[in-house]
Amino acid sequence: MKSEKFATVLLICAFFLCNAFPVKAKNDKDAEGRNFSLFTLHSSLHRLNEWRLPYPVYRFCTGDVDGDGQEDALVGVIKKTRFHREMGRRIFIFKLVDGKVRPLWLGSRLGATLVDFRFVDGCVRALETNGKGKYGVTDYRWNDFGMTFERFIIKNTDQETAIKYFDL
Fold first, then answer.
1. pLDDT per residue rounded down to tens, the chain (168 residues)
2. 2: helix, coil or strand?
3. Contact 27, 33 (CB under 8 A)
4. For the whole model, what pTM was predicted?
5. Which residues, other chains included, contact 113 with Cβ-Cβ below 8 Å and sequence gap of 6+?
């Protein structure tokens, strides 16, 4: 994994999800004493700097999303948003600014319903579904405000075929 410049970022979480990034476990409870998943991005350049993610995390990877030559952190979270009231998979992108973790993009949606994502060849590659049994794999690229459609790898196919293209 290319993470030379973003190797200073640690993901601390309540359970292990990403097999390609070192993860440390941390147990936390909410105000009522219930266990919940807590994820925090830390910059080792500033010991007191962190960005708390109080959502379940399903994916973590790094890549130079905005093309500035520095690795960014891509975190897949499961949460509701103001405009999408149902629980869903979202992508948050963070970067180091003066050694501090800062959000680059806190996305609520790409195209169709997000199943999973990766960072491939300068693009966010998304495995998506239309919710009616059809799947597709789409590349999205950074455009100064957020992610924009780049190209379809495959669309309107079954899940098994889409996963094969997604894993290429």
1. 333 333 223 333 322 233 222 333 344 444 444 444 556 665 555 455 677 788 899 999 999 999 999 999 999 999 988 887 889 999 999 998 888 888 999 988 898 999 999 999 999 999 999 989 999 999 999 998 899 999 999 999 999 999 999 998
2. coil
3. no
4. 0.73
5. 88, 89, 128, 129, 130, 131
